[in-house]
């Protein structure tokens, strides 16, 4: 029962977050013809699209944690037990890590794997990271193979939330 419950958790936990990153990544590709053309002409770049999608469009905007020890960070003192917010959207656009257009979706960017998605390899690293990467790769690959000229057909609608970085509606036209 414990193993079965684990797999149910693994599937359910990644469903919403993977869909959110996929949707926003496809929106970025519809909004930037050059980036989409790079993928359609060279599908070997799809893993780069997955990583750039995870960097630009993490499903969660932030996560709260409690400091486990006293530490100084950027000149600020954080005491053991203090609550801190990890702002993934901001850290994934850190100009020190991404000096060239940190807000842009760019498949040719260097260091695409330095993002904070999935907990950045820390203590709370996402157990489903490999599954999510595989799902994103397959979804992007299959979508572009079937509808390389998919286009935006209306205004996307976002969830109003500081925690969730997701869309509720992205209208598309398929050709």
In short:
With 175 residues, the protein is α+β, with helices and mostly antiparallel strands. The protein has helices at residues 2-31, 33-41, 46-56, 88-91, 129-146, and strands at 62-66, 71-73, 76-78, 83-87, 151-152, 157-158, 167-169, 172-173.
Strand content: 5-15%
Low-confidence stretches: none
Distance between the termini: 46 Å
| Overall mean pLDDT | 89
Q: How many helices does DSSP assign? A: 5
Query: What's the story with the biggest beta sheet?
Result: 2 strands, antiparallel
Order of helices and strands: HHHEEEEHHEEEE
Strand order of the largest sheet: 1-4
Task: Report helical residue fraction.
Answer: 40-55%
Query: How does the helix and strand content classify structurally?
Result: alpha+beta
Q: Report the C-alpha radius of gyration, rounded.
A: 18 Å
Number of strands: 8
**Inertia-based shape:** globular
3D structure, described in words:
It contains five helices and eight strands. The strands form four sheets. It has a two-stranded antiparallel sheet. The protein has a two-stranded antiparallel ribbon with strand order 2-3. The chain has a two-stranded antiparallel ribbon with strand order 5-8. Helices cover 41% and strands 14% of the residues. The mean pLDDT is 89. The chain is globular and about 55 Å long.
């Amino acid at each position: 029962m414990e193993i079965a419950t684990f797999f149910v958790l693994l599937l359910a936990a990644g469903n919403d977050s993977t869909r959110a990153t996929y949707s926003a990544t496809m929106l970025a590709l519809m909004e930037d013809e050059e980036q989409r053309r790079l993928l359609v002409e060279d599908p070997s770049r799809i893993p780069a699209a997955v990583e750039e999608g995870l960097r630009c469009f993490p499903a969660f905007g932030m996560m709260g944690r409690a400091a486990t020890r006293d530490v100084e960070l950027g000149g600020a003192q954080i005491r053991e037990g203090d609550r801190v917010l990890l702002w993934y959207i901001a850290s994934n656009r850190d100009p020190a890590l991404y000096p060239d257009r940190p807000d842009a979706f760019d498949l040719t960017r260097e260091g695409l794997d330095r993002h904070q998605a999935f907990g950045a390899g820390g203590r709370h690293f996402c157990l489903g990271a490999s599954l999510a990467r595989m799902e994103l790769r397959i979804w992007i690959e299959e979508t572009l193979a079937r509808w390389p000229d998919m286009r935006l057909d209306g205004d996307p609608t976002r969830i109003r939330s500081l925690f969730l970085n997701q869309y509720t509606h992205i209208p598309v036209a398929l050709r």
